[in-house]
Design goal:
370 residues; mainly alpha
Length: 370
């Protein structure tokens, strides 16, 4: 037999074998899924009458007695409650939520929390983020996971701890997460906003606690800048002067362009006129990012004392600074001809482009606002 034919037969047999394996795997998966779905429906039929009866009579003991310890039944039960919550509100919704915290469900998730599997741990963290944290053992485990190399587990554990009413516990979690550089910007912002309680009487205590976090020297500049942005977004007015002092005399950990830029923007968000003199100092900063931030905020204040600085910065070597200077002048009533008069002929085309961009953005903003 020719060797090429022999090789072709071998390849054909291998492909046939692989096809058979894939076919059998598909059948097994479908059978398992069908069995899983059948069990899920069985648990659903078991729990549903007792849940409905609970809504009528409030007897949670009757619901608890239906649990036998199978993992799938916990999933089925939570799925029932979650689906029902999409269709009810008010008192009935509150009663249904209470069923998510009964002993069998709590114990199941506590066991998941102590699991060696990170996926199970994350599921448990997500559960505990929705209940009032009072159990010391749960809190201890959540704190432990803040040091995990698993990003999702760190984020989930921190999120759960942010659900606590205790400011000290929340700030401990935020303080430890703040030092990590592997969480995404979105994750950091979300955690910061979760740190903030809806209770107004905690604002001052939270602000003081945030000073402790930000005073740590080993926070990555990106995280420090994000937290400053969050301070302005939430409105911690008791930190306005604290941030201004950091801007006046920045120590090494604060003297980073990204951090300085964030503080400058926060002063604008807080409309702190006391910062104007300090902001002017940063018009001569070596970082274009910082200069642009200072330009934008001073442009919003519109002080005539700053107009000569704006004109001077039209000649800055960085294009973003030039653009910010143009926008600041136009924002304060300067005409295109007045601005072009201040620049050399080599820059006229670029400055004209920025003027047109400003007019276009202003028109779009006006149209959007009606």
């Amino acid at each position: 037999m020719d060797i090429s034919v022999y090789l072709l037969l071998i390849v054909s047999m291998v492909l046939l074998g692989l096809t058979l394996v894939l076919f059998l795997s598909a059948i097994i998966i479908r059978v398992r899924h069908r069995n899983w779905s059948a069990k899920l429906e069985t648990y659903r039929k078991t729990f549903m009458p007792h849940v409905l009866n609970y809504l009528e009579e409030g007897n949670e003991k009757e619901v608890i007695e239906q649990f036998t310890g199978k993992n799938l039944e916990y999933y089925a039960f939570e799925k029932i409650i979650t689906e029902m919550l999409n269709h009810v509100e008010g008192t009935e919704a509150d009663k249904l939520k209470e069923l998510l915290f009964i002993d069998p469900i709590f114990d199941h998730h506590f066991n998941l929390l102590r699991s060696s599997d990170d996926v199970a741990r994350v599921k448990a963290c997500n559960y505990f983020s929705n209940i009032r944290l009072v159990n010391f053992k749960v809190i201890k485990k959540l704190k432990e996971y803040l040091d995990s190399p698993n990003q999702m587990l760190v984020f989930s554990a921190a999120t759960a701890l942010m659900g606590s009413d205790d400011v000290n516990l929340r700030v401990e979690a935020l303080s430890r997460v703040a030092k990590k550089d592997f969480l995404s910007e979105m994750a950091m912002i979300e955690l910061f906003h979760k740190f903030h309680s809806d209770e107004d009487d905690q604002n001052e205590a939270e602000g003081e606690a945030l000073k402790m976090v930000l005073d740590q020297q080993d926070i990555p500049p990106a995280n420090r800048a994000l937290f400053i942005k969050g301070i302005a977004e939430i409105g911690y007015y008791n930190l306005v002067n604290y941030l201004l002092e950091k801007l006046k005399e920045p120590t090494p950990e604060w003297n980073h362009p990204q951090v300085l830029s964030s503080i400058i923007k926060s002063q604008g968000e807080f409309n702190n006129v006391k910062s104007i003199k300090t902001l002017r100092r940063y018009l001569g900063h070596e970082s274009p990012e910082v200069v642009v931030s200072a330009l934008e905020e001073l442009g919003d204040y519109g002080s005539e004392d700053d107009f000569p600085y704006f004109k001077f910065l039209l000649g800055h070597k960085d294009k973003n600074v030039k653009k910010a200077a143009v926008f600041s002048l136009l924002k304060n009533g300067f005409k295109e001809s007045e601005i072009l008069h201040e620049v050399p002929e080599s820059d006229i085309k670029l400055i004209t482009k920025y003027v047109l961009m400003y007019v276009h953005e202003k028109r779009n903003k006006t149209n959007f606002n009606g």
